[in-house]
Specification:
By secondary structure, this protein is mostly helical. The protein has one domain (2-131). Helices cover 67% and strands 0% of the residues. Helix 1 (2-17) runs antiparallel to helix 2 (25-78) and helix 2 (25-78) packs across helix 3. It is rod-shaped, with a radius of gyration of 28 Å. 7% of the residues are buried.
């Protein structure tokens, strides 16, 4: 995006330089219009880049949540749990039912075992299909 901004600025400056020291009103108006068009192009490109970034961030966040839930599901089944709560709506619970620490440890272990360009946690976190 910085390259585009630099290119558009140079295009505008080159156009201004081509007008000389005493541009006509028509030339001034043309340059003003060009400046507005370039500004709108830059705004549109920034908007599209922000939208792409938001979508990518959302996809990464959802992928992480899916991976965490997959590991949490395996740990919950191993502990005989029949529900996993994702929100902070619990006023009190027996600490023995909290599997958070174990899920965090397993997530860290699978992150350590994952090759830099390898698969996600899904392989490391999958348990018996019958237990799901």
């Amino acid at each position: 995006m910085q390259e585009l901004s630099t290119r558009l600025r140079k295009e505008f400056e080159d156009g201004q330089a081509g007008l000389g020291d005493n541009p006509s009103e028509e030339d001034k108006q043309r340059m003003q219009n060009l400046g507005e068009q370039l500004k709108q192009q830059l705004i549109q490109v920034r908007s599209e880049a922000n939208e792409r970034h938001a979508k990518e961030t959302s996809a990464i966040r959802q992928s992480s949540i899916d991976e965490i839930m997959s590991v949490a599901q395996v740990v919950a089944v191993e502990h005989g749990a029949s529900i996993i709560l994702k929100t902070m709506g619990v006023f009190w619970a027996d600490g023995s039912v909290d599997i958070t620490d174990e899920v965090v440890v397993r997530m860290a272990d699978s992150m350590d075992a994952r090759p830099a360009d390898g698969p996600g946690l899904s392989e490391a976190s999958q348990g018996d299909d019958e237990s799901r």
